[in-house]
Known about the structure:
Elements: E1 4-8, H1 12-23, E2 27-32, E3 43-46, H2 48-56, H3 60-66, E4 68-70, E5 72-76, E6 82-87, H4 88-95, E7 99-103, H5 104-113, E8 120-122, E9 126-130, E10 138-141, E11 144-147, E12 150-153, H6 160-165, E13 173-183, E14 194-199, E15 202-208, E16 214-221, H7 231-239, H8 246-251, E17 259-265, E18 274-275, E19 278-280, H9 283-286, H10 295-312, H11 316-344, H12 351-363, H13 368-377
Amino acid sequence: xxxxxxxxxxxxxxxxxxxxxxxxxxxxxxxxxxPVLDDAGAGISLAANGVRALxxxxxxxxxxxxxxxxxxxxxxxxxxRWLARMxxxxxERELGTPIVxxxxxxxxxxxxxxxxxxxxxxxxxxxxxxxxxxxxxRVRWGDEVRSADxxxxxxGVRSRLRRALFPAHPGPAYSGSTVLRAITEYPVDVxxxxxxxxxxxxxxxxxxxxxxRAEWHAVLNAPAGLRTADPLAALRRRFGGWHDxxxxxxxxxxxxxxLHHDIHxxxxxxxxxxxxxxxxxxxxxxxxxPHLGQGACQALEDAVTLAAALAAxxxxxxxxxxxxxxxxxxxxGVARAARQAGRMGQQLDRPLAIALRNAAFRxxxxxxxxxxxxxxxxxxxxxxx
Length: 385
């Protein structure tokens, strides 16, 4: 077995992979292309499977201390009527940990702080991964060439390493939806910890954060690349007639804080999450739509599973084969479920279909929402130590 790795990408998945490999005694270097880590992405909600993964990575306690637990909320219509309520306390009883909401910048900071000095290299782009040497790949960035026993490709939805390893794969496809999001400038008076509201081809959601501010997101059916000169003003027009606190959340936001990204996903599943001694992880392996809130959680699961497989051995090759066998069916299944959730939720735009969907939700048993979350969040991580 080897004991050195290069992780390509310093986002949540890459940092998690580094933490997991460090926990099993490996030497790890994370190479991040961005010269400045601005931690864009507003806020994030992590279900129990993501929080449990963070526990195994050694940072769960710090994340809980910085997060707000999500107990009350649910799904509504634009006029404010409830479609389903979510009981976060029941989820905590079932899973042993609550859903948490935290700014991405805080989560990234906690994970980076758990790495030793020098483990994260920024402003460096990996330009080559030479897999010709059977003893292990050689990774080049700038003037640096580093030999490693394993390379982890955590370089996101537009992964260059995925494209090099699987040149016949079509890559990410536009989902048909675009997302705008921000954190409010100041604390807001909001009753629920988290809410989603479904309209015609649109969704508006928010989570409360520990300091009283809120993270909100608006997901819209739109052509790829469509942008406006003043996105916040456009959102105020689009959602101005929706129920409270949606107008108040937009009113508490600075225009400069609004982030706008088109949502891309891997509609065509990868045939493998590994190629030789390279393992794909997170969005590079299974980019999915955000409609289940599982993208980051699946990346965290990947990281723990990869580290556990490499710790168990007996060889790097057998460990990576086990990682692929364990992670590919689950994460690709979650990606399919997220796509279907979007089609039945935010992306639905025909009035009759929306009316039928809403009626079905209102007639559903009260525990359906909890069971839907349990289906994906009830994951027990392998132990790393």
